[in-house]
Amino acid sequence: MKVMGISGLPGSGKSLISEMAKEKGAIIVNMGDCVREEATKRNLSLGETAIELRKEQGDFVVAKLTIKKLKSLESPYKNTLYIIEGIRSPYEVELFKENFKDFLILSVYASPKTRFKRVINRNREDDFNKIENFNKRDKRELDFGIGTVISLSDYLIVNESNLEEYEEKIEMFFNKKEDKFYK
User: Which GO terms describe its molecular function (predicted)?
Assistant: First the structure.
């Protein structure tokens, strides 16, 4: 099972990497979706649920839910790439490395100013439209350890340019990795 993680703060551009990989045949599992499912069950916000889950079941809880989901999706094709989108904690990275041989992480960086503009424009349910709330969310993500994950990534893409340039950077990454992922 070939597994790769994607990390980055909200609005950095993780979803586009997943979309482009999916077009190449990758299977995507979004860690946030695992938390969203649990938040719906508990009738709590995404942030409250993430904090509660970690208090109740430890730092590995979201990673364990994700691993369980990944294994249930296992493809009959030997070289299918599985992408875990939204890794936030070094504990999660540790568990993924224990469970998946050759696990690697690609992180995306974009400045807070750039990310805030994107978050406002995408108008997703769990996004914030005030800078104060956006900054609180960043702080929460950083408290989970996402800064450590990004700093220890195997690969980093800076996403401060336009969409076309960013897509080229993603394509270049996958072209370099194609032998490993898709053959």
Answer: kinase activity
d(CA 112, CA 9): 9
Closest CA to 62 of 40, 82, 90: 90
Structure tokens at 119: 């978050």
Picking from 100, 178, 136, 103, the residue whose alpha carbon sits closest to that of residue 10 is 136
Going by C-alpha positions, the residue among 88, 18, 16 that lies closest to residue 47 is 88
* pTM: predicted TM-score of the whole model, two decimal places: 0.82
Listed in sequence order, the residues at least 6 apart from 102 whose beta carbon sits closer than 8 Å to its beta carbon are 2, 180
Identify the structural domains of the chain with CATH numbers, from first to last: 2-182 (3.40.50.300)
pLDDT for position 126: 58
- CA dist 141 and 179 (Å) reads 33
